[in-house]
Amino acid sequence: MDTEPLDAFPSFRLRLADGDTHDVLGTDGRPVGQVLASGGGHFARVGPDRGPTRQSLQGAGGDAVMFHIAHHGLPDEPATAYSGAPEARVAVSLVPLQRQELVDTTARAFTFYALRQPHVVAILSGLEVVGAERDAVRSRAGCRRVARLLRLVQAPAQALLDESTGDTREWLALPLARLLTFCHQGRVRLEATAEQPPADLRGRYTARHGADADLATLHRIWQDLRSTPSPGVDRSGIDAAMDALPTDKFAGSAVSCRATAARLEAVRAAAEEAAAPTADHDQGEAGSLLRELSALSAETGERLEATALVLDDTGRLGTVRDINDALGLARLGVPAGSGEQSVRMGSTELGPVRPSADGRWTGPGITEAFHSPEGAAAALILAHLAREESLRPNRTL
């Protein structure tokens, strides 16, 4: 029998069951809910939950999938990493954007007691935390941090849905199912993004202020740590290392990149030292924060060191913008385990660029190695463009 994938949830499909009723099929082909016709529209039905009437079959099918995810979680399939920090930020922003709908529906469900209902209070608090961390997704460690913090919303939302019955459940089922769906999706995709980072979450910073968001996230983690009870944890070394960080111009020059990276190494070492005495038992929130502080310090320091190498190459290749413009004309492959990276323009392979014995970077035709792989790749691209230009026939009017 013919089936139709749902636009918003392609792993789920619609199948005509009987008359105007459609089954919503899960990834294993079994029905997980239904979409029924009503007054010229359609509505979802999954167990005790019914969605509002939608004009489109697709819209009602999406409601059914969210009801299903709220009860059973996401399908057991590999999560897709976000294409970059912008997509991840938009996805994370969907979670705090549910705040107003939650306030409105809980006011209807609990009247004057909504803001005293413990689960509602916890959800609103979690939404505020997640909203403040949207820019953290510019780093791999930050993606993991946001994935962890999404539990602050997911856990009370799940508890509230599970406990709701009667009219209260009728009001809250879909808003909570939508919120839980965004939390589930965000968590698994952020974890996948941290494991398989896109280009803007690895390597050098491409813009002068690229490190600003990561340093801001680092300071938020530090402030959270300072306000979290952590018996047995000596934070004095962390406080001193954080106080020694520069306040701006983290990546304005190769010198500032390396200076900031050195300070970040002190933060990383202090965080690991603070965690060591209690490493044999669960440190709870403080332990999570110490791990995040250590991981983000190390990651940001590595990226600043990589940025410094590109800045070292500007003496031979022009400005950072010149290097970026050249790199934008080609397609760079994912670095191999050996460090080699392909450089292609159209169907022509110009590389690969590869590390030399002295730690610099070279490639075909390069006689003097560059400090960075980006510098070597840009040199290959610029040389290729120069050759093409020289081969063009002279034209006269």
Secondary-structure map:
Elements: E1 3-5, E2 13-18, E3 21-25, E4 31-38, E5 41-46, E6 49-50, H1 57-72, H2 85-93, H3 99-110, H4 118-132, H5 140-149, H6 151-163, H7 166-195, H8 212-226, H9 236-243, H10 254-275, H11 284-317, H12 320-327, E7 331-332, E8 343-345, E9 348-349, E10 354-355, E11 361-362, H13 373-391
Antiparallel strand pairs: 1-2, 2-3, 3-4, 4-5, 5-6, 7-8, 8-9, 10-11
Helix pairs in contact: 1-7, 3-7, 4-6, 5-7, 5-11, 6-7, 8-11, 9-10, 10-11, 11-13, 12-13
The parts where pLDDT drops under 50 for at least 5 residues are none
Shape: flat
Tell me the Rg in angstroms: 26 Å
Q: Which structural category fits the helices and strands?
A: alpha+beta
Distance between the termini: 67 Å
| Record field, number of beta strands | 11
Name the assembly state: single chain
Helix coverage percent of residues? 40-55%
Strand content: 5-15%
Mean pLDDT: 94
What are the secondary-structure elements, in order, as H or E?
Answer: EEEEEEHHHHHHHHHHHHEEEEEH
The main pleated sheet reads as: 6 strands, antiparallel
The helix tally amounts to: 13
Tally of separate domains: 4
Main sheet strand line-up: 1-2-3-4-5-6
Structure description:
It is built from 13 helices and eleven strands. It is of the alpha+beta class. Helix 10 (254-275) runs antiparallel to helix 11 (284-317) and helix 12 (320-327) crosses helix 13 (373-391). Helix content is 53%, strand content 10%. It starts with a strand and ends in a 6-residue tail after the last helix. The chain has four domains: 3-72; 85-201; 236-313; 320-391. The strands form three sheets. A six-stranded antiparallel beta sheet has the order 1-2-3-4-5-6. Strands 7-8-9 form a three-stranded antiparallel beta sheet, covered by helices on one side. The protein has a two-stranded antiparallel sheet with strand order 10-11. The model has no long low-confidence stretch (mean pLDDT 94).
